[in-house]
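Re: Re: ligand-bound prediction request (bumping)

Still looking for help on this. To restate: I need the protein modeled with pyridoxal-5'-phosphate bound, output as structure tokens. Inputs repeated here so nobody has to scroll up.
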Amino acid sequence: MPKKNFYGLLEKEIGRIDESRTSKRDEKVISGFSADKRALVGGKPYLIFNSNDYLGLRHHPAVKKAEMDASERYGAGPGAVRFISGTMQVHKDLEKTAAKFHAREDAMAFSSAFAANLAVLHCIIKGQSRTSLVGADALVISDELNHRSIIDGIRVAGLEKQSKAIYKHLDYPDLERVLEENKGKFKRVLLVSDGIFSMLGEAADIGKIQSAADKFDGEYEEGVITVIDDSHGVACFGATGRGCEEATNGKSDIVLATFGKGFGADGGYIAGDKIMMDYFRESAATYIYSNPVSPGTAGAANKSMQIVDSPEGKQLLSRLNANLSHFKTRMKEAGFAFAAESTHAIQPILIGDAAKARLLTDYLFEEGVFVTNLSFPVVQKGRDEIRVQISAAHTPKEIDEFVDKASKCAKKSGIL
Ligand SMILES: Cc1ncc(COP(=O)(O)O)c(C=O)c1O
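Reply:
Sorry for the wait, this slipped through. Here it is.
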């Protein structure tokens, strides 16, 4: 049977992945959380330093209650896609909260930020249907280190090679060079970037991106449209948790993010002008043909966003920042180097060797600490790191525990 050949191919592929020691499928299974919010794996408690729950909101009593209340009221699932009978008041409330949070006319919730990227990029690049009046004459300009969901969003649009351009990572003069070189060649430009880049915690400068877009807007018949995916930035970065836009004084046409990181819930969303949202509600495939988040999740996300937008949110953000400076001071004192000077909750510790980085995370796991090592091709060769993610939910004592254990394990693995 020829199918056997395919299965044989899969076996070889899995063998290749396992040999390269880049396998991801042997996931650590969390069976619950201890009273002090350590993850229980195989009955043992682990301190988590690799979660995107930057404000600790996933365990917030009011967020969990909002989830339960919405489930009680609407049921566990949406029952249908949005335009059939899957739109509950809780989804509309969530979108209203998101629009207000980002000071935009309207917002839309998606099942994930990945799903939002897939649909939104396609709709701006090409229109989603054959009958759409939105033509396909667009150039996409993307930061070279954009997230996989952006890359796939561009890929599914099935563009010709000449309709895609990449500028050097965070290099805005290079972005302007690309905009200049393509004047007159396309009707419109879609300019897309991550907000926070998750490998090193670097922040895109939305002010500079938007001023490049504004400068060249008149050079293209349908202008330059900006989309910023700030999934790691919102509910974490900027004075009130509005992410890179707030921190760098800029405003994109569409802000896209997840409820599954700093907000501690799940699902994705976009916010922007009403006409854009109207167009996406008519055209975005992952919105129209795929279920929204469950009512419970929408209720939790709505409550989280309201908390971030309150005095309590400000307190959580200042606790996160206090934890960050405590962590940085202690790690520097202990002799660790940083792969980048990040002011975000992502703190990359430079190890510079793949085997040592792996050994360090293995030793730390034995010591009851969860943390992630990153190596090529995710980061440059020789820039192997352990990516530490700090949360407002950490106590200073837990950060001390992390630093002490990391020092001990780094000595054992020949790093310090
Ligand atoms: C920039 C960026 N966009 C999108 C996503 C995906 O978010 P979600 O889990 O909501 O699909 C991530 C998460 O890794 C991300 O870092």
